[in-house]
Amino acid sequence: MEQIQEYVPVTQAKTRLLDLVRKLKGSGDAIAITKNGVPEAVLISMEKFEGILETLEILSDEKTMKALRRSMRDAEKGNWISEDEVSWE
Q1: How do residues 26-72 score in pLDDT, each as one tens digit?
Q2: Among positive and negative, which fits the CA dihedral 62, 55, 50, 88?
Q3: What whole-number distance in Å separates Cα of residue 85 and Cα of residue 82?
Q4: In the CATH scheme, what is the code of domain 6-44?
Q5: Residue ranges per structural domain of the chain
């Protein structure tokens, strides 16, 4: 799991917001915003946020998770098929 790359006090975050946003663009970084030294919020890129939402959607889909678990069990057992065996129609 990824860790927080930087901790920024809320007073600094207010003055550095544009720089912090630019720093996050195109990165997987996360910046914690602190209040009185305690992390209160996290700043992440929109791309990272959308990825988190997509992951939550997949994890909450019972049918998809069942298929993923079955695939993982098959992979652990070495049950693979070659690319030639896959039908792309």
Answers
A1: 888 999 999 999 999 999 999 999 999 999 999 999 999 999 999 89
A2: negative
A3: 5
A4: 3.40.1620.10
A5: 6-44, 48-77
